[in-house]
Specification:
Elements: E1 45-48, H1 49-78, H2 87-112, E2 113-116, E3 132-136, E4 142-148, E5 159-161, H3 165-170, E6 178-183, E7 186-196
Parallel strand pairs: 1-2, 4-5
Antiparallel strand pairs: 3-4, 3-7, 6-7
Helix pairs in contact: 1-2
Length: 206
């Protein structure tokens, strides 16, 4: 079975985010593991409207609330003497590096985002980006998943990335179809039971 590519029918305009922030760090934080999930070469960073809003809200919270608060604590701790044994100062500086790293990550990913509104999908009888799918495997166990962007995937909550093996197997299928899922663990057959998309303006469906 050939692997279907990302079929995304409707986009809203890409929004740019302001990069203006100041790194507050004594040490380089390149030793920290990268947060960006890899995308297939040449593909776009699709994200739902709700996912974009959540990431943007997180970025604004970090920049406008959490970071200034931590900077204030670090400044206070630095005024208390020996920094090498000052727990508040050391923890604060570590937290600043974490915050700055997250800010850089969110800024870059939001700038690269291709925002998709699943409620505008015209082919609602097929599985595309943003669809919620109920399917069963060969053992008869049922699953409910929503296909979302790499940066908003939460597999334990049933939100799977559009580049995951399951999402790729489901893409373009319709209710009643059976698709083949090939993974390193083996081959499975998935029966598509239901396909749903959020209604226009529904911010809670994803």
């Amino acid at each position: 079975m050939s692997r279907p590519g990302p079929a995304v029918s409707v986009f809203v305009s890409k929004r740019a985010m302001n990069k203006a922030f100041v790194k507050e760090s004594d040490n380089d934080d390149d030793d920290l593991a990268p947060e960006a999930a890899p995308l297939p070469p040449g593909t776009k960073n699709y994200i739902t409207t709700q996912g974009y809003a959540r990431l943007r809200a997180e970025l604004e919270h970090l920049m406008n609330e959490e970071r200034p608060a931590v900077v204030q604590v670090v400044s206070w701790a630095a005024s208390n003497g020996d920094r090498s044994e000052n727990g508040d100062y050391l923890y604060g500086k570590k937290r600043l590096r974490e915050i700055d790293r997250r800010i850089r990550f969110l800024t870059k990913r939001l700038e690269q985002a291709e925002v998709v509104d699943p409620s505008l999908q015209p082919n609602k009888d097929q599985v595309f980006f943003g669809a919620t799918v109920v399917y069963s495997d060969k053992a008869g166990e049922e699953f409910r998943v929503t296909i979302v962007g790499v940066d908003e995937a939460e597999p334990l909550q049933g939100r799977i990335s559009w580049i995951s093996p399951v999402a790729r197997a489901l893409t373009k299928a319709r209710e009643g179809d059976t698709v083949v899922l090939r993974t390193p663990a083996g081959v499975d057959e998935l029966d598509i039971l239901e396909v749903h998309y959020p209604d226009a303006g529904d911010q809670t469906a994803l």
